[in-house]
Each structure stands twice: as structure tokens, then as C-alpha cells.
Specification:
By secondary structure, the protein is of the alpha+beta class. Helix content is 28%, strand content 21%. The protein is built from 17 helices and 19 strands. The strands form five sheets. Strands 11, 12, 13, 14, 15, 16 and 17 form a seven-stranded mixed sheet that branches. A four-stranded mixed sheet has the order 1-10-9-8, with helices on one face. Helix 13 links the parallel strand 14 and strand 15. Helix 10 (298-307) runs antiparallel to helix 12 and helix 16 runs antiparallel to helix 17 (465-482). The termini are far apart.
Length: 530
């Protein structure tokens, strides 16, 4: 078996020029790109779950928690400290007293209650509601059965008590951009036109279909931040357009697709300015244990993992823009086991396991998949000859992208190919193999194992964060051994950056979302941006 690269080793790939110069430099304009659409759908970032709108959120708004991309964990953002009750259900936050909104109003507990009540109101149909539903009483308030959220309590202006429905770490939910804290004294309709937040930058201008401009907020609560004077968030959905603009030094960063990734790696002038990270998505083929009798046997599922040359497919079809999957949790997960090793390519081992399981003469199944080039029918077609070599016949079952989710949730498949979100919260992710999780939620393969349940339930009950992570690591390793899916790869997000850019981070939850307040440009930048 080949040992998997550690997270530290992975993040070091292609990042040699990210080493900081002696001292960060203040000033300058940073030309960022918003590559996931041809426009911004709204400036009211509560209203959109899309990454496209979150570029603005990261500049002008803040949530209770933020994501530490180096430690791969949520950290307090708008509070200096928190006290946790012994049963792990009540969190008492001591809010920052120097935090101000862009209109000069100090942050208080009232702003949190205002924000969370807006999100919880069912008639608003806001995406952030799914994240704050961990708070006790959110559903009752949202339906109108209660006039306030039971789990929110104002102790004083800067002390907020949050009681959860069940013990857990609320940071994974309350760090989401769609839970950003809005000021209670600003009319909500203004947030869609001239948004006001707590972030390091103040909204300046929106040119529809073109760009959003933000400028430094001098009263930002982090002393010395931000370094930049201005950020232009430029709409640029076409990869070819970003490529031309980046090569002409018109933009400072560019998200790369597979073809551009190969080209930039081969270009001596560009290859040393690439940031790569395995994002928290796992591409896989899931095996239905209710539709295919053979898949009930662990040896059969393991055999498929041994029979497929995953590294070859990643190299030839995905152009190296992916990281070989070890198990369900990706590299960016805090519960990922850096000592774990992926299944090696071993057809003879696969044949041996199939024989032991009573399938020496093979069997056949179909894989439901979309046309996606990275995790769809083209990948299924690539594994056909590999599985045929060990006697297993596979048939692709093409399906429209829009129908994939509902088809899988309904269990209408023998096997499926998909790219599943597998982070950042390992407790939430690993519930997908808990027997009490319905297939319609995320237990798509209908996996059920009492031994796994015992490990996962122990993790749910554990109050010590370090001990809980160890149990979740054990659960993840158990799933690797059980192989309810073919573990294919973790998406490798790739960002090219100009040599004068510093402060970018390996954000495994979404590489394109960067902490603008930590970014700075040195004096080699073009004169127009210094």
C-alpha cells in the first residue's frame, strides 16, 4: 500500500511562493474573481446559499464563528470567549466589545437575536435556517408556535446564552456565511442594496454583471487589519476569460479547471504560484445493499475497491486535479487519519475476495450517473474494463443532473456515482452510515452495522472534543474497512495567484473563499494596484 500524503504535505504542494515576506504591507487594491456565475443574484447574503454571493459575505460580514483553514476547525470570531455547560448543551458567549457595524453601531446581543429570528422565520425561507436549527426552540418560533426562540437568552448587551437541542459543537453551523450577523437597526431592504456588516471592508459599489467594490473599514475590530485599501470582486465565470486576464496581470487570482491546471503546471512562469487543497467533497460510487445481494458482503465491496486503478483514472481523465480518496472523510476534516492508507490497485486480491464471497464467476450491476466528466458516466466507462478483468460486469445508467439527488434519496439505484459533501463537521458527516439515519437523508447505501453504531453513538455522547475526534477517526477507519462505497477521490481545488499576493489560505471548505482581511500585496504589484 502507498501511504497517503499528510495534510501538511499536501498543502505544501505548489505553494512554495506563499511564504510571507518580512512584514505585511498596508495599502493597495486586490482584484479578486467571482467565478461561479455571470452576476451576483443578491447583495442580501442571507438570501442565497450560493458561493457566488459568499464572496461579498467574506468581505463585509461576520458570523459568530469563522473557519481556521490551517487547523481545520471552527474558531470564535465575534466573541472573545465562551463558557460551556457540563452537559454540552448551553454555550455562554462573551461578545467582543470593540466590534462595530459599518454604520458605527456597536455589536450587541440584540443583533444576534434579530438575525437568528429572521433566519428562523419559516415564511422567509432563508438557507441559514438549516444551520441555526440546532438551537432549542427554532422550529417552534419558525412555525409561529412561539414568540421567541427558547434557546436564545440575553444576559446583558455583550453576553449571549445559546442552548442547543442536543450536545455538540455549534461552531460548524454558526460559522456559515448564511448565518452572518446583521445589525438590528438597519432596515432589511437596505441589505439588498447597500449592505451593512461587521467585516473588514465596507460596501462601496455594485456594478451588476461586472463587479462589487469594497473598501477598508477603519474601525474594524482586529487591530492592524485589513492590509488592503480596496478589493474589486470581479464577475468572471468563463475559465478562458480568467486565463487571459490572469496572464495579462489584470486579476490577482484565478480558480483553475483541469485543462488550465495542466497548462499552468507546464508553464515555468506560472507553476510556482499555485495553491492547491483537497476540498471537503468525496467522489464515490455507492453500493445499494437493498437492491444488489452481492453488495451485502463486505468482501465484494472491498474487491471493487481493489479492482479499480484509481490513480490511473485521476491522472488520465481528471488531469491530476484530484486527490486519491482514502476513506469517507477528506484531508480537510479534523477527524481524518493521516496514517491511513488507500486501497491499492490489486486485481488478484479482488479475485480472491470475490471467490471467498461465492462470486468466483462474477456478477453484474448498473451505476446511475450524470454526464459530469469528473464524477459521472465517463468515469464509470473507465472502470468497466478494470472490473471486467475480475469478472464483474457494469452498465452505466445515465441520468439528468437535476434528477440525480432525488433518485438516490429515493433508493432507486443499484449503485450511484456522486460527489458528496463530507465536511467540515465529521460528526454530521459520519451520521450518514448510522443505521438510524434514513436513506432519504444521507444513508444512501442503506448501510447498517451494530459495531459502527456503537462507535458513532459513543462519539455523539462524548463531551471531550479531543476524545470525540478520536472516536470519529475510528468510525471513519471502520467505514474504510467496510467499504460501502468505492472511494474515488477528493476534489482538488486549485487557485493560481500572482507572485505579489500574500496571505492566501488552504480553505478546504471552499478554496475560492479567502480571508480578505489577511491578504496583502507587496511592492512588486503593478503600479495601478499599489
Amino acid at each position: 500500500m502507498l501511504k497517503t500524503l499528510s495534510l501538511a504535505a499536501l498543502l505544501s504542494l505548489g505553494t512554495a511562493t506563499l511564504a510571507w515576506a518580512d512584514e505585511p504591507r498596508h495599502g493597495g487594491t486586490f482584484n479578486f474573481t467571482a467565478p461561479y456565475g455571470s452576476a451576483f443574484a443578491t447583495l442580501d447574503t442571507h438570501s442565497s446559499p450560493n458561493i457566488q454571493e459568499q464572496f461579498l459575505t467574506f468581505a463585509i460580514h461576520r458570523s459568530l464563528y469563522s473557519w481556521d483553514s490551517h487547523a481545520n476547525t471552527p474558531v470564535l470570531e465575534l466573541a472573545d470567549s465562551v463558557d460551556v455547560s457540563e452537559d454540552g448543551t448551553t454555550y455562554t458567549y462573551h461578545l467582543k466589545k470593540n466590534a462595530k457595524f459599518h454604520n458605527g453601531t456597536p455589536l450587541t446581543v440584540d443583533d444576534f437575536i434579530f438575525t437568528y429570528e429572521r433566519l428562523a422565520t419559516a415564511s422567509n425561507a432563508l438557507p441559514g435556517a438549516s444551520y441555526i436549527n440546532i438551537i432549542k426552540g427554532v422550529q417552534e418560533f419558525g412555525s409561529g408556535a412561539a414568540t421567541e426562540i427558547e434557546g436564545l437568552k440575553k444576559i446583558d448587551d455583550h453576553t449571549l446564552e445559546i442552548t442547543l437541542d442536543a450536545a455538540g459543537n455549534p461552531g460548524f453551523n454558526l460559522m456559515e456565511p448564511t448565518t452572518a450577523i446583521y445589525p438590528a437597526d438597519v432596515p432589511l431592504e437596505q441589505q439588498a442594496i447597500n449592505p451593512v456588516g461587521l467585516g473588514a471592508f465596507v460596501f462601496k459599489e455594485h456594478v451588476p454583471g461586472s463587479q462589487i467594490v469594497v473598501e477598508r473599514f477603519d474601525d474594524y475590530y482586529e487591530e492592524g487589519r485589513p492590509y488592503l485599501d480596496r478589493v474589486n470582486i470581479i464577475v468572471m465565470a468563463e475559465g478562458s476569460a480568467r486565463d487571459v486576464a490572469f496572464r495579462n496581470q489584470e486579476i490577482d487570482v484565478s480558480i483553475l479547471g483541469p485543462v488550465q491546471y495542466s497548462a499552468y503546471q507546464a508553464d515555468p512562469a506560472l507553476k510556482d504560484n499555485i495553491l492547491e487543497v483537497a476540498e471537503t467533497f468525496t467522489r464515490n460510487i455507492g453500493f445499494s445493499q437493498t437492491q444488489v445481494e452481492a453488495f451485502k458482503d463486505k468482501r465484494v465491496r472491498q474487491a471493487i475497491n481493489y479492482a479499480i486503478n484509481s490513480d490511473l483514472i485521476i491522472e488520465r481523465l481528471v488531469k491530476g486535479k484530484a486527490v486519491r480518496a482514502t476513506s469517507w472523510l477528506p484531508f480537510g476534516s479534523p477527524a481524518f487519519d493521516t496514517e491511513a492508507e488507500p486501497y491499492p490497485y490489486d486485481p488478484e486480491k479482488a479475485k480472491e475476495l470475490l471467490k471467498e464471497a461465492g462470486y468466483e464467476n462474477g456478477f453484474e450491476f448498473e451505476v446511475t450517473a450524470t454526464s459530469n466528466e469528473s464524477w459521472g458516466v465517463p468515469i464509470v466507462e473507465a472502470i468497466l474494463p478494470m472490473l471486467a478483468e475480475v469478472g464483474v460486469t457494469v452498465r452505466p445508467r445515465p441520468i439528468e443532473s437535476a434528477a440525480l439527488g432525488s433518485t438516490i434519496s429515493a433508493g432507486n439505484f443499484q449503485a450511484y456515482m456522486w460527489s458528496n459533501l463530507t465536511g467540515p463537521d465529521p460528526l454530521t458527516v459520519m451520521r450518514c452510515y448510522w443505521s438510524q439515519t434514513p436513506q432519504s437523508a444521507c444513508n444512501y447505501t442503506a448501510y447498517s452495522n451494530p459495531e459502527y453504531d456503537k462507535i458513532y453513538e459513543a462519539a455523539r455522547a462524548e463531551r471531550d472534543p479531543e476524545k470525540q475526534l478520536e472516536l470519529l477517526k475510528e468510525a471513519n477507519n471502520f467505514i474504510q474497512e467496510e467499504a460501502p462505497v468505492w472511494f474515488f477521490n477528493y476534489n482538488k481545488a486549485v487557485m493560481a495567484h500572482q507572485p505579489w499576493v500574500h496571505g492566501l489560505v488552504p480553505n478546504a471548505t471552499e478554496l475560492a473563499l479567502q480571508p480578505y482581511d489577511d491578504i496583502w500585496i507587496d511592492d512588486t504589484a503593478p503600479a495601478s494596484r499599489q
